[in-house]
């Protein structure tokens, strides 16, 4: 059974991500864990606890959180009736990223699916601050669903890489599972400044070829100095409907998504984005 965590702040975006998750895994036996975290808008945790207890604020927020989770669970169970799916829910007085870390340590989930914008997310912002933090630090695969992206089967998967990672089979296992579910093709894209790979890059490329040998896949090389534009152009040209990357600290992924490129790629990223931690 897959254990999939579904964080929600009760926004339309988070509900859309939940709907995507239950459709993506419609043929899989899954336990979906709905999670809502809540904290008053006060910086100090110690002060929060005292003030909340004094004014009964904590009880009111807890009740609103549980009511919201009940409403979402009933809506999803009604709209997507599926005997393979069970739902549980967690309401927690905690910061989202801290709660996710705690749940992972408790072996609660194998994967996270969440929306890219929060309830107050501005349209021009790619990721809400919560999503960015979780995205960077998640210890299990995380699938981020853009606002208003309606579910479609992920038949074309894009896997960009600079081939600087010493790939292990566990890094691509999750991608292979999704590809098997939907008879998908994996497009491995290398955006290069030079026309020739180094020995290390070639070695890592060969590893990927071995790992994907039983999965439909193609290797692509694009000569361009602008990685963000290359990914966006390839995504549109090849009708990609799932982007996946390995989050390897201080590497391609981090430079691409958390440096100055974040705003640039935000204009283009309108498909689901699967992030695989390198220490999975």
Automatic annotation (TrEMBL):
Name this protein carries in UniProt: UspA domain-containing protein
Per the record, the domain of life is: Bacteria
Q: Fetch the Gene3D superfamilies from UniProt.
A: 3.40.50.12370
Q: What InterPro entries has UniProt attached to this entry?
A: Universal_stress_UspA (IPR006015), UspA (IPR006016)
The entry assigns this protein to a family as follows: Belongs to the universal stress protein A family.
Report the SUPFAM superfamilies cross-referenced here: Adenine nucleotide alpha hydrolases-like (SSF52402)
* Domain UspA as annotated: residue spans: 1-146
Q: Which organism is it from?
A: Kordia antarctica
């Amino acid at each position: 059974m897959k254990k999939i965590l579904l964080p929600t702040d009760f926004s339309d975006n988070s509900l859309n991500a939940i709907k995507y998750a239950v459709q993506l895994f419609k043929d899989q036996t899954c336990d979906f864990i709905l999670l809502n975290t809540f904290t008053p808008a006060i910086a100090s945790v110690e002060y929060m606890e005292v003030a909340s207890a004094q004014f009964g604020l904590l009880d009111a927020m807890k009740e609103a959180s549980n009511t919201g989770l009940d409403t979402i669970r009933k809506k999803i169970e009604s709209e997507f009736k599926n005997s393979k799916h069970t739902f549980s829910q967690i309401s927690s007085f905690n910061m989202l990223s801290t709660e996710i870390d705690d749940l992972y340590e408790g072996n609660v989930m194998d994967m996270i699916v969440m929306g890219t914008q929060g309830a107050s997310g501005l349209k021009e912002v790619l990721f809400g601050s919560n999503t960015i933090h979780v995205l960077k630090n998640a210890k299990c695969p995380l699938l981020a669903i853009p606002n208003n992206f309606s579910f479609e089967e992920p038949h074309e998967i894009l896997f960009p890489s600079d081939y600087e990672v010493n790939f292990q089979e566990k890094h691509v296992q999750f991608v292979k599972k999704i590809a098997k579910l939907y008879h998908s093709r994996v497009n491995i894209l290398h955006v290069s400044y030079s026309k020739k790979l180094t020995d290390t890059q070639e070695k890592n490329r060969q590893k990927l070829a071995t790992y994907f040998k039983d999965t439909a896949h193609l290797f692509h090389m694009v000569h361009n100095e602008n990685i963000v534009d290359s990914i966006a152009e390839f995504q549109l040209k090849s009708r990609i409907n799932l982007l996946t990357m390995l989050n390897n600290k201080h590497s391609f992924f981090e430079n691409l998504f958390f440096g100055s490129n974040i705003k640039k790629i935000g204009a283009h990223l309108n498909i689901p984005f699967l992030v695989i931690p390198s220490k999975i």
